[in-house]
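Ops channel
N.P.: pipeline sanity check, posting one input/output pair.
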């Protein structure tokens, strides 16, 4: 029995799924001049599947390339400003972050970092993990990476 004109025979569903999967899984590099340039072979962020995946930010002032202070409070403020700049370049913002990972050089800085961090995220705050690491790039005191919706 010949197929009717316009009949799909199961191939169309596969083609539609493949096209949708390819679009959803494509990736776009995000670059912001208002945040420090990447210190290695990675992107500041990648947009894929309606989400923004931000690389970890440390407290470098994008104008000077120097740390924006020595305290964990000052560094946390700058890290979050850097993340905001990257997210804005992607078409998102801090309010759309769904998950962060905070890396501390010293877990003794947790309360101070947390006090600053809390001021940037209204309820409901993003899911978060916080870990102490042996060392951060350029001996930063805090680094934060994030995943946000567009």
């Amino acid at each position: 029995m010949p197929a009717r004109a316009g009949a799909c025979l199961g191939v169309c569903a596969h083609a539609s799924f493949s096209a949708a999967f390819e679009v959803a899984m494509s990736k776009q590099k995000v670059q912001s001049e208002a945040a420090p340039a990447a210190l290695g072979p990675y992107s500041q962020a990648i947009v894929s599947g309606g989400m923004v995946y931000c690389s970890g930010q440390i407290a470098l002032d994008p104008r000077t390339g120097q740390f924006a202070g020595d305290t964990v409070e000052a560094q946390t403020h700058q890290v979050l400003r850097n993340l905001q700049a990257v997210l804005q370049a992607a078409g998102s913002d801090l309010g759309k972050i769904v998950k962060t990972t905070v890396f501390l050089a010293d877990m003794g800085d947790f309360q101070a970092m947390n006090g600053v961090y809390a001021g940037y995220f209204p309820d409901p705050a993003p899911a978060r993990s916080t870990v102490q690491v042996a060392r951060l790039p350029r001996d930063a005191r805090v680094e934060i990476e994030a995943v946000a919706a567009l």
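N.P.: looks fine end to end. The longest strand covers residues 97-104.
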